[in-house]
Amino acid sequence: MPTVIVVCGPTGSGKSTLRARLVERGAVGIDADEVARAVVEPGSEVLASLVAAFGDDICDNEGRLRRDVLAARAFGSAETTALLGRLTHPAIRAEIEAQLASAGDGDVVVVEVPLWRRADDWICPDLVVWVGASAERAGARVAEEGRMSEAELRQRRARFDFEAQRHEADLVIDNDGGPEALAKAADRVWSLALAADGKGHRRA
User: Fold this and answer.
1) SUPFAM superfamilies per the record (predicted)?
2) 164 and 3 in contact (C-beta within 8 Å)?
3) In a shared domain, residues 203 and 112
4) Helices (H), 29-178
5) CA 109, CA 136: separation in Å to the nearest integer?
6) Binding-site annotation, residues for ATP
């Protein structure tokens, strides 16, 4: 049975960089955002259900999802946000579960997710790591990568209760420092993962 680490936290906090550092140390990486993009590829059942629910114009002329249009429409109310979850989460969960099932005994698998709560957990990790950063530092990272505007980042941070995740995590990393500090944090996470076999939440 593999050892499973969940890495969660706000956009721009450095979750992906931490996941990459752990992969360099030998972990198998799973990115929930990448899975979410894969399940809405043109021709997929999930994309067809989204079009039926939110309109044809959420796709471009090539049939690809316009994520900004979907986000503006889906996050307009609690009802449409819940609908988005019902249409996408089962496929995302099934793919992540399949990747976890394919991991070998003794593997360390790091799953990067934007949101995680112990109350509705299905990944059943051995270790939960919350990565955070100040709004200013997160905004600078997102701007450098060109992923979204600072206004979009503020809206996303306000939409979700990231502090609740922080309090439920086994390890909190405040990632306002540079690459060296995050590398040291990755070393600590890796050591904890190697020591977690037989002691994590999944086996409690």
Assistant:
1) P-loop containing nucleoside triphosphate hydrolases
2) no
3) yes
4) 32-38, 45-54, 67-74, 78-101, 135-145, 150-159, 162-168
5) 30
6) 12-17
Q: Which amino acid is at 187?
A: D
pTM of the full structure: 0.85
Q: Annotated binding residues, as ranges?
A: 12-17
Between residues 119 and 78, the one the model is more confident about? 78
Residues 162 and 113 in one domain: yes
**94, 150, 179 from 50: Cα distances, Å:** 18, 27, 39
Q: Which two tokens stand for residue 77?
A: 């109310």
Q: Residue 180 CB: number of other CB atoms within 10 A?
A: 8
Size of the chain in residues: 204
- CATH number of the CATH domain containing 67: 3.40.50.300
Q: Tell me the per-residue pLDDT of 1-28, one tens digit each, with 9 for 90 and over.
A: 899 999 998 888 889 999 999 999 999 9
Whether 43 and 87 map to the same domain: the answer is yes
